[in-house]
Amino acid sequence: MTQSLESGGERDGETRRASAGPRLPSRLSPIDLVHLAHQTAGDRALEAEVIGLLIAQIDRARPAIERAGPTERSRLAHALKGAARNLGAFRLAEAAEDLERDPALPSVVRAFLDELDRTGRFAREIA
């Protein structure tokens, strides 16, 4: 799990479909805690570790996204998208996917940064 968070990798196209599944109550929060518990097999120490990794990644991502050109912004968004999906930050993953697709569009950049901030605040609250 830690490696997946750092690399931002995805298994295949099914990952997006699975994350876009039914609108479960747990998916209303910035991080789906039910999904996170499933991914970590209920290991609270591992949950805390991956949340800490996400917070660190978010802290690095904001300034990098703000100063990057479109090509680099798309690459950064791709890496964060995979990490976010792996731990259940599905709204952030969707915003990252939008940014990956349209990295030069100011409204997409703003929406991504807003979701990044929202997810970061939530992650810090539960850390």
TrEMBL record:
Residues 8-17 have a biased composition (Basic and acidic residues). Residues 1-27 are annotated as: Disordered. It comes from Jiella sonneratiae. Keywords: Two-component regulatory system. It comes from the Bacteria. Residues 60-117 form the HPt domain. InterPro entries: HPT_dom_sf, Sig_transdc_His_kin_Hpt_dom. This is Hpt domain-containing protein.
